[in-house]
Design brief:
Layout: H1 5-13, E1 30-31, E2 34-35, H2 49-61, H3 73-84, H4 86-97, H5 107-115, H6 118-134, H7 139-161
Antiparallel strand pairs: 1-2
Length: 162
């Protein structure tokens, strides 16, 4: 598969801004989408873009085997991992392709992604992500931003298909 990491991480960073510590955000202090809840040993306030990209490459992109996913799915799965957690991203992908749901992207899940209709899988992932957002208690506060981001990522994923 084509390496789309730079494109994907730049798309994520376009939606994940500078340092914020919103009391309504259960992730706590966050910068570039990296939260103190997920990374308690990282100095979030002084996190550099390059360090954030290293975290994304190693803990999200590689962990979810995005280089092995079809173009478009790689972006969407990566963004889901950043915004909804790696386990949720893997589970959503597995549900969308009809693989056994275990939260780990392994050979079976990858095989299913290679034989599935990628456009339909992209649509299914977008729908499932949107439904998950609607069930989060903070949806009234953050939902519009999440949905804007999801629409943007959906559009980008579809463009990577053409």
């Amino acid at each position: 598969m084509k390496d789309n990491f730079d494109l994907a991480v730049n798309a994520v960073l376009a939606h994940e801004g500078s340092y914020v510590e919103d009391p309504d955000d259960p992730g706590g202090a966050t910068k570039y989408g990296i939260s103190s809840r997920a990374y308690p040993d990282v100095d979030i306030e002084n996190l550099s873009v390059e360090d954030a990209k290293d975290i994304y490459l190693n803990d999200y992109w590689r962990k979810l085997r995005c280089d092995e996913l079809p173009s478009g799915l790689d972006l969407l799965v990566f963004d889901a991992a950043v915004n909804q957690g790696p386990g949720a991203a893997a589970t959503i992908l597995q549900q969308a392709v009809g693989a056994k749901v275990d939260g780990i992207i392994g050979p079976q899940t990858l095989s299913y992604t290679q034989t599935a209709d990628t456009v339909n899988v992209i649509r299914e992932i977008v729908a499932m992500r949107g439904a998950k957002y609607g069930n989060i208690a903070t949806f009234p506060r953050f939902g519009l931003g999440w949905m804007r981001r999801l629409i943007y990522m959906h559009q980008m994923a579809m463009e990577l298909q053409s």
